[in-house]
Structure formats: C-alpha cells, structure tokens
Amino acid sequence: MIRLMPPVPLALAILLAACAPATPEAAPEPPAPVAAPQTSVAGRWRLVELDGKTGTLGFGIDLMADAGRIWWEPACAGQSARYMASGTSFRQLPPIDAEPRAVCDIGFPRELLDVWDVVAAADRVDRDPEGTLRLSGGGRSLVLRRLPDLPRQPDAPSSADLNAPVASPSQVSSAHSLSLAGHYRVAGIDGGELGGRRGLALEIGRDRIEFDNCQQIAWHYRHRDGRLMTERTPAITIDIAPKPTPCAAPLSEPEARMVAAIDAADTATLTASNGILLSGGGRSVLLFSQ
C-alpha cells in the first residue's frame, strides 16, 4: 500500500506559519499636546484699577495694544512697553533699537509711570468673559476694561504722528460713523505738537465743545457726514466742575491757537492713530481720548 506524503517544502511552511509569533498591533499615537489657551492683550483699553485702588486716578488713561506692544497715545510721547504673553504667562521684553521717530514733549498723567512699573513686574495675565484684563505680579496689579474699537474710515489720513494733514472733503467720514462726544486731551495744534507739561483738555458733548477757561469760551456744534460747523456760545453747562469764575484774563498762547483752530474747523476726521482731527481754514486741532 502506498502512503501519500505532502511535499516537504509545503509541510515545512505550514509548521513555520503555525509557530510564528503574532504580529503586534501598532501602538496608538499619543494625543497631540494641547496648547495653552491664549489670553489676547490686543485692543483698546481703559485703566480702571491700579494696585487695588479705583476711582482715584487723576485722568482717564487709555492704552492701545497689539500682539507685542502696549502704548499710550500719542505714540510720539514714547510711552510704551514690549511684552510677550502665552496662556496666562506674561513678561515685559526689553526695548529694541528702532528707527528715529518723532518725539513730542507732551504732559501725561503721573499714574502712567505706575502703569509701566506694573507692566514690568507682571508675570500673569487674566481676562474674564466680560473683557476685563488683569496684569499682576510682584505684588502689583492693574485692571483694564475693554473699550470699543474706534471706527475707521477708508480715506483717513495715514500719518500716525502729530503731523496729520488737514483733511480734504474726500477724507470725511461716512454718515454717523464718527461720534465726537467724549473727554479729550489736545495733542497737537496746526500740525505741531503741544509743548510743555501743562496739557489742555477738551470736553465734547452731544452738541457742545468746552474747555476749562474763565473767559467762558465754548461752542455749539453740528456734525454730519464728517462736516463740522461750530459757533461760539458763552454758557458753560457740561461736566466741568467747579465752574470757573468769569474773568478778563488773556488766554495762554496754546489756548488762543486752539480756540482759533476750533473757530475755523469745518471737518472732523479719524486719523490712523485713532486721533480726532478737527480742521478747516488751514488750521487744525488733534485730539486723543482720555
């Protein structure tokens, strides 16, 4: 009787396959690292608390920030700081050499120096859902409240310094895009910076322009589509307290130039550095919110 045997190579292959270890399954890839949540500092801010104190600031202090710098306007005042933020970590960066730029001698609130001290000491940044930003570190802190971005007009003057050109009719804002009401500091007059340490403040209400003066100079104004009309009115009614006593003293030289420029103004525009430029008749006044 003849017995059939499988060919040796085939039998060997079957045995080797049975003894071979199973191929291990590929290990799962580790999860991608989760980036720390970023706290954006960019925006327009108002200081509302300094080292735990509120309501004691001598002036309203507004700050601007982008992805790596915080500054106080006008930029020519040189009041700024570089920073780096990642998650809730914050640190100030050393200044870098920059191209020569215009520098203006303009008064600023003394509390601004404390702001920069806090920025230098801060190592943490936090932001709540309402948009309030807090910098803290080294036993110091400040709290900023987000302000709405000022509207921009496509044809606004591009100069970021005090030499903003007098606006032409093509540079007026679109209807109702620019509200003038607010509290301002005068940064420049007739294209030049406002020198000296004594600043000028200007109050603009719904239909009035006023500043602190015993000569009782004020204006009624109308503003539409970037066009501005001003006319003198003597009564002082908006929030200047205490009311100045009437006098016959002459205006200071900067006050006299500011008054003449506002008398001549027929246009209101927003500059690239978020200033308000009142201009007309070859005169101009540059204002920044405070």
Short description:
By secondary structure, the protein is mainly β.
Describe the structure.
- The chain is mostly beta strands and 290 residues long.
- The chain folds into two domains: 43-147, Lipocalin (Beta Barrel); 169-289, Beta Barrel (Lipocalin), CATH 2.40.128.
- The protein has helices at residues 8-19, 111-121, 253-264; strands at 43-50, 62-65, 69-71, 80-86, 89-93, 124-127, 133-137, 140-147, 182-189, 192-193, 201-204, 208-210, 218-224, 227-232, 267-270, 276-280, 283-289.
- Strands 9, 10, 11, 12, 13, 14, 15, 16 and 17 form a nine-stranded antiparallel sheet that branches.
- The longest helix is centred in the first third of the chain and has 12 residues, at 8-19.
User: What's the CATH architecture of the largest domain?
Assistant: Beta Barrel
Q: What is the name of the CATH topology of the largest domain?
A: Lipocalin
Structural class by helix and strand composition: mainly beta
What is the CATH domain class of the largest domain? Mainly Beta
Unreliable parts: 151-176
Order of helices and strands: HEEEEEHEEEEEEEEEHEEE
What structural keywords apply?
mainly beta, 2 domains, Lipocalin, 290 residues, 8-stranded antiparallel β-sheet
